[in-house]
Amino acid sequence: MNILVTGGAGFIGSHTLIELYKAGHTAVVADNFSNSNPESLRRVAGIIGIPEVPFSHVDIRDREGLEKIFAAHRFDACIHFAGLKAVGESVEKPWEYYENNIGGTLTLLDVMRRHGCKNIIFSSSATVYGDPAEIPITERCPKGRCTNPYGWTKSMIEQVLTDLQKADAEWNVILLRYFNPVGAHPSGRIGENPGGIPNNLMPYITQVAVGKRKELGVFGNDYPTPDGTGVRDYIHVCDLAAGHVAALQAIGRRCGVGVYNMGTGHGYSVLDMVKAFVRVNGVDVPYSIKPRRAGDIATCYCNPTKAKAELGWEARRSIDDMVRDSWNWQRHNPDGYPE
Ligand code: NAD
Ligand code: UD1
């Protein structure tokens, strides 16, 4: 298939491009590089062994820009990663998040249908479950109240896509609810490249390990979890990338709307992650216990069996693979991609 990959220069998009080409698909990337760098696409091309990954420097809110891409290519499906994703920033700049994430998606969907491309895989998030009603979380678990505008954009876009498919059965929609993507391609050539102070655990750990930050703050050790620190379902980004290829096959089978958790089904605490990182990589990660972070929940991990049963996909990589590959990327690229 030929796939439009919005946000393809970003962390998850760049890894997914590799899996797409490995599976015999081709791709065109649409990215405004607001949180990424074309260097990731050059490196992806090097890993795949092609001269370049075709891309357009375009904002998905730019209807004319998107029209040009659709005039030049025929797409079988779109994998839609493009969006802003910093939870704290979304609380400070809600309008910007709704406008970019929802406005961008609405424009994209309109251009897609005008060109007869009605197959989409959307990057949703475990955040749509809010404080989950049950653990492990299945897809039957009701969506909850999100604690921030970022989460609401994911929840609302899921609704838009579901309603669109209900009204027009030509659409095939896959909503992938990612748990906590970490790790990097084993080559160490591409990885997660957060600007400023990382919000998420793994990039913070790797930046402490490489000496860019003094110590990790562990946000709370009084949760009702085995060691008191927050428990999450970390998933290797290469496994998550492969999940998108599996989802494309479901689109080929005309799936209607499909909702899938993308996680391993295992929960690890903050201290489990720190200890694994130190053990596998032999580097020190100083940390101290800090107060809980507002909006955090104690435990979040999924039941991933629906994706296995219906998509034939499951995560294969271990926590050791995750911490090794995260560190391999960071130590070879202490400042991320060169500007
Ligand atoms: P990322 O920031 O690395 O990638 C997003 C890409 O989208 C970037 O390359 C950015 O430049 C681009 N982009 C943003 N707005 C755009 C616009 N208006 N037009 C064109 N391009 C635009 O993030 P990621 O970690 O790769 O996440 C990809 C998707 O998965 C996002 O939608 C994110 O919300 C979702 N997601 C991520 C996580 C996670 O922990 N990384 C978890 C759940 C869901
Ligand atoms: C974050 C997002 C959530 C998104 C999810 C998956 C926030 C508040 N939430 O959630 O919307 O769906 O990623 O991408 O950003 N931790 C520390 N110290 C740190 C950083 C994190 O102790 O410096 C702890 C957290 O308290 C948590 C765990 O590590 O227990 C994981 O945190 P993080 O990586 O931010 O992911 P989530 O909280 O799951």
Mean pLDDT: 97
Would you list the SSEs in sequence order as H and E? Answer: EHEHEHEHHEHEEHEEEHEEHEEHH
What is the number of helices?
11
The hetero compounds bound to this protein are: nicotinamide-adenine-dinucleotide, uridine-diphosphate-N-acetylglucosamine
**Estimated share of beta-strand residues:** 15-25%
**SSE class:** alpha/beta
Helix content: 40-55%
Computed Rg:
19 Å
The count of DSSP E runs of length 2 or more, i.e. the number of strands, is 14
Shape descriptor: globular
Biggest pleated-sheet summary: 7 strands, parallel
- The largest beta-sheet arranges its strands as 3-2-1-4-5-6-11
Poorly predicted spans: none
Gap between N and C termini: 32 Å
Give keywords:
alpha/beta; binds uridine-diphosphate-N-acetylglucosamine; binds nicotinamide-adenine-dinucleotide
Structural description of this entry:
The chain is of the alpha/beta class and 339 residues long. Helices cover 40% and strands 17% of the residues. The protein is globular. The protein starts with a strand and ends in a 7-residue tail after the last helix. The model has no long low-confidence stretch (mean pLDDT 97). The structure holds nicotinamide-adenine-dinucleotide and uridine-diphosphate-N-acetylglucosamine. Nicotinamide-adenine-dinucleotide (NAD) binds next to α1, α5 and β5.
